[in-house]
UniProtKB/TrEMBL annotation:
<dbReference type="InterPro" id="IPR047929">
    <property type="entry name" value="FtsX_actino"/>
</dbReference>
<dbReference type="InterPro" id="IPR003838">
    <property type="entry name" value="ABC3_permease_C"/>
</dbReference>
<keyword id="KW-0131">Cell cycle</keyword>
<feature type="domain" description="ABC3 transporter permease C-terminal">
    <location>
        <begin position="185"/>
        <end position="297"/>
    </location>
</feature>
<dbReference type="InterPro" id="IPR004513">
    <property type="entry name" value="FtsX"/>
</dbReference>
<dbReference type="GO" id="GO:0005886">
    <property type="term" value="C:plasma membrane"/>
</dbReference>
<comment type="function">
    <text>Part of the ABC transporter FtsEX involved in cellular division.</text>
</comment>
<dbReference type="GO" id="GO:0051301">
    <property type="term" value="P:cell division"/>
</dbReference>
<protein>
    <recommendedName>
        <fullName>Cell division protein FtsX</fullName>
    </recommendedName>
</protein>
<keyword id="KW-1133">Transmembrane helix</keyword>
<dbReference type="Pfam" id="PF18075">
    <property type="entry name" value="FtsX_ECD"/>
</dbReference>
<keyword id="KW-0812">Transmembrane</keyword>
<feature type="domain" description="FtsX extracellular">
    <location>
        <begin position="57"/>
        <end position="161"/>
    </location>
</feature>
<keyword id="KW-1003">Cell membrane</keyword>
<comment type="subunit">
    <text>Forms a membrane-associated complex with FtsE.</text>
</comment>
<keyword id="KW-0132">Cell division</keyword>
<keyword id="KW-0472">Membrane</keyword>
């Protein structure tokens, strides 16, 4: 009977403040959608790091006629210098770190360059001899690329030894900034949602001030008086959380998998299972945020 009375009071409050409840639902929905998007973006960055770091290679660029530097004083790398680098890769020092490697000639580099920059005017101004002959090395553990860099950087005929992971780090740093920006916006929206929930609860309590006075006179405890108001806030926030969870699942299904998945076949993208993992997080965040805000608002109101 006591529980039924509490739930009845909460339902009456929701009906009386329908417009404010709708605003709480919308603000919670928008803010938690940002939160879910930020979480998914972090998941996506993690998947991309795992996927691309495993594919990242170390490029050993041999000297060309136009190369400068102490190791390229003799002009283009000779066959002896190329063989010396290959011997190094096969040596007992480096072989334990190398998974596989292949050598790219001027002509192969030119074909790849033309395919990569097809339709770009720059492709018309590059000749095969201007492009480096390169050893492309896949490491067993890509994080140990410094071993190759230190061993081969100063060798005659080698212009440069570059780890592709350094270029990936720059890309991921940009993605992380975008993710942190989304988290910042979501944080501001959550603050707005908390303030709106608190305001809604205080207005709801004010509209029922006579009822609250009577309940106090008959000996109702503060907890009994507060609970319906807290339930109002939690219900509205949970509704917004469910909408946000549905939006996250829809975004992943229709945009990430349906649109991007078809066009970016070489990428590892987040899936529905990842989106489903995010939904409970949004529900918990919404419920806790509403319960805290409503409890704070009604407690301060009752003390006035």
């Amino acid at each position: 009977m006591r529980l039924a009375l509490v739930l009845s009071e909460a339902a009456n409050g929701l009906r009386r403040n329908a417009s404010m409840v709708v605003s709480v639902v919308l603000v919670t929905f928008i803010s938690l959608t940002f939160v879910g998007a930020a979480i998914l973006m972090q998941m996506q960055i993690g998947q991309m790091k795992t996927f691309w770091y495993e594919k990242a290679q170390v490029g050993i660029y041999m000297c060309t006629d136009v190369s400068s530097g102490e190791t390229c004083t003799g002009g283009e790398a000779t066959q002896e210098q190329i063989d010396a680098v290959e011997e190094q890769l096969k040596s007992p020092t480096l072989a334990p770190f190398v998974d596989k490697y292949y050598f790219e000639t001027h002509e192969q580099a030119f074909e790849n360059f033309q395919a990569q920059f097809k339709g770009n005017p720059v492709a018309d101004y590059v000749s095969p001899d201007q492009l480096n002959q390169t050893f492309w090395v896949n490491l067993i553990d890509p994080s140990q690329s410094d071993v190759l860099v230190e061993s081969l950087s100063g060798q005659a005929g080698v212009e440069n030894v570059a780890d592709q992971r350094k270029y990936l780090d720059q890309i991921f740093s940009v993605l992380n900034v975008a993710s942190y920006t989304a988290i910042g916006i979501a944080g501001l929206m959550l603050v707005a949602a908390a303030l709106l929930i608190a305001t809604t609860i205080r207005l709801s309590a004010f509209s029922r001030r006579r009822e609250l006075g009577i309940m106090r006179l008959v000996g109702a405890s503060n907890r009994f008086i507060q609970t319906p108001f807290i339930l109002e806030g939690v219900f509205a926030a949970l509704l917004g959380s469910l909408l946000a969870g549905g939006a996250i699942v829809a975004i992943v299904h229709f945009f990430v998998q349906g649109y991007l998945g078809v066009r970016l076949t070489g990428f590892s993208l987040v899936g529905i299972e990842d989106a489903i993992l995010v939904v409970p997080i949004l529900l918990v965040v919404g419920a806790v945020l509403a319960a805290f805000s409503a409890n704070f608002a009604i407690t301060r109101y009752l003390k006035v």
